[in-house]
Amino acid sequence: MLFSAVRGKLLLASSHSIIEFDVDTANVTVLVGHGGSIVYSVDYDYENRYVYFPRYTFGDIVRFPYPSQNIQLQHVVNTSSFPAGVAVDSANDHVYWVVSDGNTLSRCKSDGTNVVVFTSFSDTFMIRLDFTNRWMYIGYFNTGISKSRFDLTDIRMIANFSTQTLCMDIDLIEQRMYWMNIDSDIKSVNVDGSDVKTIFSMHSFTINYAIGVLFGNIYYASRNQLVMMNKSQGSTPTVIYTDTSFIYSIYVFNSTGM
């Protein structure tokens, strides 16, 4: 079963490579080098078993098979400048992406064909999908988080940012969005926009690029450190891994396998 193979695994994008981190054993495996680009987002195609990520510096999206004994990067699509967020819709064979501080949302087939560009956005940086309920969430680093259907109908804001934010994730079980801003505050909100909470606050200016949530835990990157903490308010963060370079993205395999 796929989920048994990836259960308890995180994928980290460092300055040099995509890394597998086993939460249970703390084993670290370098999966593949990405050419030295910054990688702000990672997503997974559960149906076809590919990891997708945008290469910010190179202006493209690539993928590799995972789990696999023969991991090699495959080019998917060239993007406009500085792709930051990526999300894969396995059911419809679509890959979505947004660029840094951009005004578009783009979509293509998983092989890079049939590119479609949607306009009327601004300050984009992040994107997440809820496959089961068919909702798309887009994060605007100076503004907040919007929610819409995959065809961009029924769009609305569910969270507003007072401080610049570069990372967010969705808990598909709890149906809550989590994000971390540059003041190192971790916040969450129900996907209907209600019950905004501050989970943790360090009151320290740090550019935080990565966050992931699963079950009762939050994982985030603080420069070159991977940190874990409980979702409950007032919990204490614990460093569980230190890399030799910055960690720019975290992908947590969800419990539904979807």
From TrEMBL:
The keyword Oxidoreductase does not apply. It comes from Mytilus coruscus (Sea mussel). Keywords: Membrane, Transmembrane, Transmembrane helix. GO terms for biological process: canonical Wnt signaling pathway. This is LRP4. One of its GO terms (cellular component) is plasma membrane. One of its GO terms (molecular function) is Wnt-protein binding. The chain crosses the membrane at residues 200-221.
